[in-house]
Amino acid sequence: MSQLYVYMLPYQIVEQIWFYLDDVCKIMTCKEYYKKYHYLLREKHIIKNYDSYMRSMIRNDYSFVFGFIVNENLETWRKKNKICYKNIIYFSYLHFILDLIREYSSQNCKIVLWSYLNTCGYGKNIHKNKRNKYIKWTN
Known about the structure:
Elements lengths: L1 H7 L2 H10 L2 H4 L4 H7 L2 H4 L6 H10 L3 H16 L4 E3 L2 E3 L2 H12 L2 H14 L11 E3 L5
Antiparallel strand pairs: 1-2, 2-3
């Protein structure tokens, strides 16, 4: 709602306001500023819950933002650390991301992730290393 009022202002005033804005505010305005300042999201702790942020990027199929996240975090995702989500234990964060992409059927994120995996040489045999452990309560 407040953005509508900005468009009513003359360009000279908007230009002066833009000069005083923090770089964090400029991140989500356009692709150019996201490319320039995306590292600030982690540095300034803007993203409180990283897993929730990843799920929303995949659910909404934001492949542009997802590409930057994959580029920064692919090596750490491959490490073996257990993640429990919806009564399933994933043995690496990468397998968790792949399952989320399949669950939400986000094709653009899938293309971006597989292109990064293939360029790094991980995509060839990743389907062989997939292990999930389903947890069910039994009486």
